[in-house]
């Protein structure tokens, strides 16, 4: 079973996303900020990361830059999931190594569509 | 929904667009007509039907009929099929036609995502064999409002996130102040839109190299399916192909078309599938 790390400081968003991602047959891990996510990746690199932008301690962009420098960090497919949905932010996320981008709010159809876009489902 | 009310609306759907709406799906009628009922201030579907029957207003009746047809669509729905049309079907048609021009019709194209997906593919991944060709894409729908929305090319938050990659969104769309995303003028110029009821003659639309009528026929009653398919067949140039949705077929509907040899979901004029395979 593939693994997906959901990184978001909102417990509600994590809960909603986790339910959808589990339905897509992923094993789900959760982190509340980028630093916690980084520690989890060093222990067990996931297949996919669903990543919020604005978070305390370490934001999504800093996490992504760090992840891509880690050994094995190029492998996870990273799908940003943010309310920052203008072209400038989206391009910045892509430049830093995001594979896809979901604009919040999202639903199961959107999440599945974006995971399909990068070959996760 | 009261039985009489359901029967009136289901009958209107059948007569005007060939839709067969079973009683078990009466919720579809309520969902599709709710915006009109709200706008007109009707307290119930019974009020709406009463208005339809008491006032002979063909424009209002046509609006109701069009609203009863499903609008569900998304970008790159059945991507493999669209890809093969661009990479395989169109180059073969171009080679066979020798005119340098190709015509594609998305019949029942709703808000335009299918037609725009083809335009995006042609813009991003134009096969060498199609370079220099003039490719006209027409999308039609029974609903005037939907056709107008498609022509304007503005899509909402949810619409642009179903089937469209973020890179294509950023490349081909601009975000407006309203939060909607507008498709580029270049892509809009590649597609034209017209209101058209598939039950009516399509003679005025001309002949086509490829006709897509995907996920439209299954909701229709069998006689309407036959009428639509045979009307579409009339608009196919010699050697043209009709593309249906996956799982749809025309067996028992018409003998004017037969399955294409090398294209699942593709239908060609009866008696030509073998000839086409040997020519290829």
Automatic annotation (TrEMBL), chain A:
| UniProt xrefs under SMART domains | REC
Q: A Pfam family matched by this chain, by name? A: Response_reg
Keywords, comma-separated and alphabetical: Phosphoprotein
GO biological process per UniProt: phosphorelay signal transduction system
Please give the name of this protein.
Chemotaxis protein CheY
What species was this sequence derived from?
Answer: Hyphomonas pacifica
Automatic annotation (TrEMBL), chain B:
Annotated GO MF terms = protein-glutamate O-methyltransferase activity
What EC class does the entry list? transferase
Among Pfam families, the record links this protein to: CheR
UniProt keyword annotations, A-Z: Methyltransferase, S-adenosyl-L-methionine, Transferase
Q: Does the keyword S-adenosyl-L-methionine apply?
A: yes
> Which stretches make up the CheR-type methyltransferase domain?
1-264
Record field: catalytic activity: L-glutamyl-[protein] + S-adenosyl-L-methionine = [protein]-L-glutamate 5-O-methyl ester + S-adenosyl-L-homocysteine
Annotated EC: 2.1.1.80
GO biological process annotation, one example = methylation
The answer to whether UniProt assigns keyword Metal-binding to this entry is: no
User: Where are the membrane-spanning stretches?
Assistant: none
PANTHER family, per this entry? Answer: CHEMOTAXIS PROTEIN METHYLTRANSFERASE, CHEMOTAXIS PROTEIN METHYLTRANSFERASE 1
This chain belongs to which protein, by name? protein-glutamate O-methyltransferase
Source organism per UniProt = Hyphomonas pacifica
């Amino acid at each position: 079973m593939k693994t997906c790390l959901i990184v978001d400081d909102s417990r509600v968003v994590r809960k909603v996303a986790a339910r959808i991602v589990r339905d897509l047959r992923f094993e789900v891990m959760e982190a509340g900020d980028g630093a916690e996510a980084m520690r989890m990746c060093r222990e067990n690199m996931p297949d996919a990361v669903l990543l919020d932008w604005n978070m305390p301690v370490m934001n999504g962009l800093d996490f992504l830059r760090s992840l891509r420098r880690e050994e094995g960090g190029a492998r996870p497919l990273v799908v940003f999931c943010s309310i920052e949905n203008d072209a400038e932010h989206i391009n910045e996320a892509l430049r830093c190594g995001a594979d896809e981008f979901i604009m919040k709010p999202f639903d199961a159809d959107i999440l599945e569509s974006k995971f399909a876009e990068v070959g996760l489902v | 929904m009261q039985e009489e009310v359901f029967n009136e609306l289901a009958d209107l759907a059948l007569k005007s667009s060939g839709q067969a709406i079973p009683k078990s799906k009466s919720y579809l009628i309520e969902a599709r007509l709710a915006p009109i009922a709200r706008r007109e201030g009707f307290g119930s579907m019974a009020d709406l039907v009463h208005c339809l029957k008491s006032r002979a207003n063909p424009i209002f009746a046509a609006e109701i009929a069009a609203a009863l047809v499903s609008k569900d669509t998304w970008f790159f729905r059945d991507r493999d099929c669209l890809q093969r049309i661009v990479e395989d079907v169109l180059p073969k048609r171009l080679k066979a036609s020798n005119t340098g021009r190709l015509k594609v019709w998305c019949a029942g194209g709703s808000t335009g995502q299918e037609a725009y997906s083809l335009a995006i593919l042609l813009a991003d991944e134009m096969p060498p064999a199609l370079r220099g060709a003039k490719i006209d894409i027409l999308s039609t729908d029974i609903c005037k409002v939907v056709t107008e929305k498609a022509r304007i090319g503005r899509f909402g938050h949810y619409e642009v996130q179903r089937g469209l990659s973020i890179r294509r969104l950023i490349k081909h769309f601009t975000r407006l102040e309203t939060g909607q995303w507008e498709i580029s003028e270049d892509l809009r110029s590649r597609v034209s839109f017209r209101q058209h009821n598939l039950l009516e003659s399509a003679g005025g639309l001309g002949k086509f190299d490829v006709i897509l009528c995907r996920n439209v026929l299954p909701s229709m009653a069998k006689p309407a399916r036959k009428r639509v398919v045979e009307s579409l067949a009339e608009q196919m140039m010699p050697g043209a192909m009709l593309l249906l949705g996956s799982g749809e077929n025309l067996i028992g509907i018409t003998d004017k078309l037969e399955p294409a040899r090398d294209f699942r979901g593709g239908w060609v004029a009866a008696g030509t599938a073998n000839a086409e395979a040997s020519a290829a």
